[in-house]
Design goal:
By secondary structure, the protein is mostly helical. It is built from 11 helices and 2 strands. 71% of the residues lie in helices and 2% in strands.
């Protein structure tokens, strides 16, 4: 008679047990929360901005320049996605580059922790934090200050999910390539600023020239905000975001280096 043994079920894509991956996620979450800059910029800043904008009376009045919408209506999606942008282009690349620079990744390379598992754990923590922040911004802006809800909630949700995955895929690509925290910052910050501009962070998208509005639909942050606001073809924006997600993630996995 033989006795059946039950080995822990492995997640083939990570070569890890499910329990091991959950432990890795908890570890990454603790590390993230120990970074004041990440907490302040990725969580506190979006919530603070939507609160400040909500208390400015002029931002709650419809404007002809914004197509009859209020300034608050325009900035709710912008601030809702701010956490995803900030963490994807700063926290994620800098964290991995710092680990690479200090030789931590090299030591992990000979451990049971594979690159895909480490990347996935970091992404899971950042995505969860960004989603909670986005929900808070929408709740404060729409529920607290009366900003208009998107006309098509399902399209908005699809753009948020695909937008977050697209931003994180690009952040992972920077993480995979940057040899040091300085290089990661040098690549991530300009990329973030470019996305800020085409998402209307500095000036509302509606006030930009037509050619820049068209370009914004092909920049991740801009495509997300356009979809939320109902500008342009939603299918085009969602396709752009899906393309960034697939290409960025595959490229990151392909070129990832431990040292």
């Amino acid at each position: 008679m033989t006795t059946a043994t039950h080995a822990p079920r492995l997640l083939p894509e990570f070569r890890m047990t499910g329990n091991g991956f959950r432990t890795l996620v908890r570890t990454q979450a603790r590390l993230l929360w120990r970074e004041p800059a990440v907490v302040l910029s990725g969580i506190v800043l979006p919530i603070a901005l939507i609160t400040v904008f909500g208390f400015i009376p002029a931002f709650g009045k419809p404007s002809a320049a914004l197509g009859g919408r209020t300034t608050l209506d325009v900035y709710v999606p912008t601030f809702a996605m701010l956490s995803s942008v900030l963490t994807a282009f700063t926290a994620l690349p800098v964290t991995f580059a710092d680990l690479r620079e200090r030789g931590v990744l090299r030591r992990l390379a000979v451990s049971p922790v594979p690159a895909a598992g480490l990347l996935a754990a970091q992404v899971a923590v950042i995505a969860t934090t960004a989603a909670a922040t986005a929900a808070s911004v929408v709740l404060i802006g729409c529920g607290g200050f009366g900003a208009a809800l998107p006309a098509h909630p399902l399209t908005m949700l699809a753009s948020y999910v695909l937008g977050t995955t697209a931003l994180l895929a690009l952040g992972l690509l920077i993480s995979a390539l940057a040899p040091s925290a300085g290089v990661a910052t040098g690549i991530g910050v300009p990329t973030m600023i470019l996305n800020f501009f085409f998402a209307g962070v500095y000036v509302p998208l509606q006030t930009l020239p037509h050619v820049l509005r068209t370009i914004s639909g092909f920049v991740p942050y801009g495509a997300i905000v356009d979809t939320w606001s109902g500008s342009g073809a939603a299918w085009q924006h969602l396709t752009v975001l899906a393309a960034y997600t697939v290409v960025g993630a595959l490229a990151a996995a392909r070129v990832f280096k431990w040292e």
